[in-house]
Structures are given as C-alpha cells and as structure tokens.
C-alpha cells in the first residue's frame, strides 16, 4: 500500500499569480518534501515575481519552468539554452557521465498516472498501459524492454549524437521533445527559434 510520503506531488503555478492562492500555499507550516512547486514564467518580469514568491515558500521544493510561447524566443534562449561555459561549469562526475550513456536522468524511474489510469513514462510518449489492467511491475518491465522515455539519451538524437560534448550535456528535456529540436545549445545552433 502506498503512503502519502511515497507519492511525489507537483503543483504547477502559472500566471497570473493570484495573491489569495499564493497566501494559502504559504500557510502550510510543515516541510513538504513530497510536494514540489513548479513555477512557470514567460518573461523577465514574471521570472522576478516567481523568484520573490519562491523566497517565501521555504517549506516546499521549488523548480522554475520557463515557458516558450513563440513570442519570447530571445528570453527563452537566454534562460534555457546552454553555452560552452555552462557545460564546463556543470562538471558532471563519472557516474553522471556513465549514466547519460544509457538513461535519461529526467525520466528514469518515473511514471505519470492520469485520472483514467493511463500510465506514461513521459507525456510526450505513448502510454505504456493502464494501472487498472497492468501491475506496476509489468509497466516497469515494459518501459525497460520496449519503452523509449527512460532510455532516450543524446546518443539517440540529432545533432547531439554527432557532437563531441554529448556526454557532458544535460539529459534530453521535455522542451526539446515538445519542440522537436535537440540542440538547445549555443554550440550547434543550426535552427532559428523565431521561425519554428
């Protein structure tokens, strides 16, 4: 039987930030390690507001999610794309470099279960089955043997698989999957984001 402490909850907070809702979230007195606030922003003004809110929400795990809306390409590139300096500063250890050869660290070990029971390893990929009809063990085996989410590495996407730095870069992200563009870097920036 699953306990609440074993379930990870992600709460997406988008604009406009409603003061009443934010005040209610901040009232939680105890630490919530199983709950993560994912703060979504589209521009520098919104980014500053979510950073201000995050400084007050110390009882929660926080992550920041820039949102691409085709009107904010310059801001998005500045925030999300990586440079050679970013790669050098990342300094992945041997374990991280080795794991990036075989698994996607963003997706590995995760399942997303919809209210209708559909199970995905990543929402950008087809469902693996339904939790009502398949055991968790069966779904894990299916993803390990047939799935693509957990094993999607830079070695399997263009232009990354031909890049000298593929093993130093972060794992393939949902941004890249959604936009069908796998070079979110300023090293091999072959496409213009403004015209996609």
Which helices and strands, and how do they pair?
Blueprint: E1 9-13, H1 19-26, E2 32-41, H2 44-56, E3 60-66, H3 73-80, H4 84-90, H5 94-102, E4 112-113, E5 118-120, E6 129-130, H6 136-145, H7 174-179
Parallel strand pairs: 1-2, 2-3
Antiparallel strand pairs: 4-5, 5-6
> Residue ranges: pLDDT <50 for 5 or more in a row?
190-196
Helix-strand category: alpha/beta
In the sheet with the most strands, the strands line up as: 1-2-3
Q: Please give the share of residues in helix.
A: 25-40%
Please state the CA-atom Rg, rounded to the nearest Å: 19 Å
Sequence of secondary-structure elements = EHEHEHHHEEEHH
Integer count of domains: 3
Number of helices: 7
> Mean of residue pLDDT?
82
Number of strands: 6
Instruction: Please summarize the sheet with the most strands.
Output: 3 strands, parallel
How far apart, in Å, are the first and last alpha carbons? 46 Å
Shape: globular
Percent of sequence in beta strands = 5-15%
Question: In summary, what is this structure?
Answer:
This protein has 196 residues and is an alpha/beta fold. The protein contains seven helices and six strands.
Would you give an account of this structure?
The protein is α/β, with parallel strands linked by helices. The chain folds into three domains: 1-67, no CATH class; 81-108 and 152-196, no CATH class; 110-149, no CATH class. Helix content is 31%, strand content 15%. The protein is built from seven helices and six strands, in the order βαβαβαααβββαα. The protein has helices at residues 19-26, 44-56, 73-80, 84-90, 94-102, 136-145, 174-179, and strands at 9-13, 32-41, 60-66, 112-113, 118-120, 129-130. The strands form two sheets. The protein has a three-stranded parallel β-sheet with strand order 1-2-3. Strands 4-5-6 form a three-stranded antiparallel β-sheet, with no helix packed on it. Strand 5 and strand 6 form a beta hairpin. The longest helix has 13 residues, at 44-56. It is globular and about 45 Å long. 15% of the residues are buried. The model is unreliable at 190-196 (pLDDT under 50).
């Amino acid at each position: 039987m699953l306990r609440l402490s074993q379930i990870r909850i992600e709460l997406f907070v988008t604009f406009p930030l409603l003061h009443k809702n934010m005040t209610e979230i901040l009232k939680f007195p105890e630490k919530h390690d199983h709950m993560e606030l994912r703060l979504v922003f589209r521009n520098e003004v919104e980014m500053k507001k979510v950073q201000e809110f995050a400084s007050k929400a110390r009882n929660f795990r926080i992550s920041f999610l820039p949102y691409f809306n085709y009107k904010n390409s310059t801001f998005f590139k500045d925030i999300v794309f990586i440079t050679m300096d970013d790669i050098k500063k990342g300094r992945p250890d041997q374990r991280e470099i080795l794991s990036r050869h075989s698994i996607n660290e963003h997706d590995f070990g995760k399942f997303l279960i919809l209210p209708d029971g559909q199970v995905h390893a990543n929402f950008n990929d087809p469902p693996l089955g339904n939790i009502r009809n398949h055991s968790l063990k069966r779904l894990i085996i299916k993803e390990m043997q047939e799935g693509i989410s957990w094993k999607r590495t830079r070695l399997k996407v263009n232009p990354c698989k031909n890049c000298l730095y593929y093993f130093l870069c972060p794992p393939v992200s949902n941004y890249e999957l959604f936009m069908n563009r796998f070079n979110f870097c300023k090293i091999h920036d072959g496409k213009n984001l403004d015209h996609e």
